[in-house]
């Protein structure tokens, strides 16, 4: 992850629910009340770039209290995790967060959630296989559209997942999208190469 | 709820869009100015906050102020990152253009001519150019740099196409006198400055 990575920067803008642990007079604006002090116990949604450091930073007090504590965002809440356990392919991750995995990685850095990591790993592996399947298929559909006629029966086999497939692809998060793009381009480049070899 | 860093995020979104475009969208001068202004405001606030302490601020003694300072600092750092990333995305794009031999400044001039429609040369490049003056400068200097770099190897075209020729016969330009060259079609004279058609395999 580079300092200049736009996707990393956008991931850092994802918000997570935080709770302030002490009164802070000057930060009222974070809770939309600029004129009043921010009371301890106030819940505010803070972007990762801010929350991450506030969670880690030590106040220097004897009890080792931090400025804020955080909860897992809804995108990684129990409902979503249960759904992912049931069938990773059925969850539109994009609806949870456009940078779902990026957000999850940050959260795993911060929390000691044991189960989450393994659920996410399984999620990605299962979905990656599905993505690569779709990436190859889209290419062949595009190819068939050019040379119509021939593919009526073959189209049938492809369309088995057609509608659901589109639904699935819409639900990809940014990382999965780039994976899809790469798999798609790879399959296409491979095919182009084979065709050019045949010609010569 | 507008808060610090929101404008920087807008810049990041602009940069994200720029990555997926073939051309360079207009420079967000307003937004860049607003973000830098925000950084200056934050810096001013930090100075005011620290003033009563006379340089002997102890974060452990005053948690609330320490937290405010941290938030301000992080906001400034965030803005800096957004600004740098935005500009770098654009310069990357510009460098790509230069390597591809696209005359960016020419492109700008064309856009101006097209956009102005003869009505008036509005603001001398400011309004209709998609590059900031600094970026135009950057392109010019980067172009010079690339030219100087290429100048070291006059017989290799570094910016040439990497695609191998498909045709059986290609045009070649003779760089050095090579006298007579025998090909399967007979002799050709390779004299400096002349152009010859050669078989691609040779």
Automatic annotation (TrEMBL), chain A:
Subcellular location(s) of the protein: Nucleus
Gene Ontology CC annotation, any one: GINS complex
UniProt keyword annotations, A-Z: DNA replication, Nucleus
Pfam families in the cross-refs: PSF3_N (PF22466), Sld5 (PF05916)
Family annotation (CDD domains): GINS_A_psf3, GINS_B_Psf3
InterPro entries the UniProt entry points to: GINS_A (IPR021151), GINS_bundle-like_dom_sf (IPR036224), GINS_Psf3 (IPR010492), GINS_Psf3_sf (IPR038437), PSF3_N (IPR055221)
Residues of the GINS subunit domain: 78-194
Superkingdom per UniProt: Eukaryota
Protein's UniProt keywords contain Nucleus: yes
Similarity comment text for this entry: Belongs to the GINS3/PSF3 family.
Summary of subunit composition and partner proteins: Component of the GINS complex.
Function: The GINS complex plays an essential role in the initiation of DNA replication.
PANTHER family: DNA REPLICATION COMPLEX GINS PROTEIN PSF3 (PTHR22768:SF0)
Protein name: DNA replication complex GINS protein PSF3
Native source organism of the sequence: Podospora fimiseda
Lineage: Eukaryota, Fungi, Dikarya, Ascomycota, Pezizomycotina
TrEMBL record, chain B:
Claim: Ion transport is one of the keywords in the record: no
Pfam families named among the record's database cross-references: Sld5
GO cellular component, one term: GINS complex
Any one GO BP annotation for this protein: DNA strand elongation involved in mitotic DNA replication
Occurrences of domain GINS subunit (ranges): 64-153
Major subcellular location class: nucleus
Keywords assigned: DNA replication, Nucleus
Subcellular location(s) of the protein: Nucleus
Family: Belongs to the GINS1/PSF1 family.
Function: Required for correct functioning of the GINS complex, a complex that plays an essential role in the initiation of DNA replication, and progression of DNA replication forks. GINS complex seems to bind preferentially to single-stranded DNA.
Subunit structure: Component of the GINS complex.
Protein name: DNA replication complex GINS protein PSF1
Organism of provenance: Podospora fimiseda
């Amino acid at each position: 992850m580079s300092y200049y990575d736009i996707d990393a920067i956008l991931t850092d803008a994802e918000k997570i629910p935080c709770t302030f642990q002490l009164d802070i007079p000057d930060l009222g604006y974070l809770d939309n009340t600029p004129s009043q002090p921010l009371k301890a116990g106030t819940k505010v949604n803070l972007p990762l770039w801010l929350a991450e450091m506030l969670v880690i930073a030590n106040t220097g007090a004897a009890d080792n209290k931090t400025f804020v504590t955080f909860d897992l965002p809804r995108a990684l809440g129990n409902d979503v995790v249960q759904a992912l356990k049931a069938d990773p392919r059925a969850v539109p991750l994009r609806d949870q967060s456009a940078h779902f995995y990026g957000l999850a990685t940050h959260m795993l850095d911060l929390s000691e959630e044991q189960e989450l990591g393994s659920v996410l790993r399984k999620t990605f592996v299962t979905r990656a296989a599905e993505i690569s399947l779709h990436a190859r298929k889209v290419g062949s559909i595009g190819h068939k559209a050019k040379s119509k006629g021939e593919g009526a029966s073959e189209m049938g086999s492809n369309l088995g997942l057609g509608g659901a497939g589109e639904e699935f692809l819409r639900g990809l998060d940014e990382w999965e999208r780039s994976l899809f793009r790469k798999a798609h381009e790879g399959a296409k480049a491979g095919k182009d190469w084979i065709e050019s070899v045949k010609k010569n | 709820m507008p808060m610090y860093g929101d404008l920087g995020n807008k810049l990041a979104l602009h940069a994200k869009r720029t990555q997926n475009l073939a051309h360079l969208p207009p420079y967000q001068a307003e937004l860049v100015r607003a973000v830098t202004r925000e950084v200056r405001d934050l810096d001013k606030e930090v100075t005011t906050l620290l003033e009563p302490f006379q340089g002997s601020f102890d974060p452990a003694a005053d948690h609330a102020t320490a937290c405010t300072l941290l938030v301000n600092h992080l906001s400034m750092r965030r803005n800096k990152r957004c600004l740098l990333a935005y500009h770098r995305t654009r310069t990357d794009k510009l460098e790509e253009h230069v390597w591809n031999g696209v005359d960016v400044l020419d492109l700008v001039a064309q856009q101006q001519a097209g956009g102005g429609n003869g009505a008036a040369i509005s603001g001398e490049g400011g309004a209709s150019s998609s590059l900031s003056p600094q970026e135009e400068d950057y392109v010019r200097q980067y172009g010079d740099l690339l030219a100087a770099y290429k100048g070291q190897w006059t017989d290799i075209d570094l910016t040439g196409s990497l695609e191998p020729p498909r045709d059986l016969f290609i045009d070649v330009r003779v760089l050095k006198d090579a006298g007579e060259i025998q090909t399967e079609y007979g002799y050709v004279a390779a004299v400096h400055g002349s152009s010859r058609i050669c078989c691609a395999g040779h």
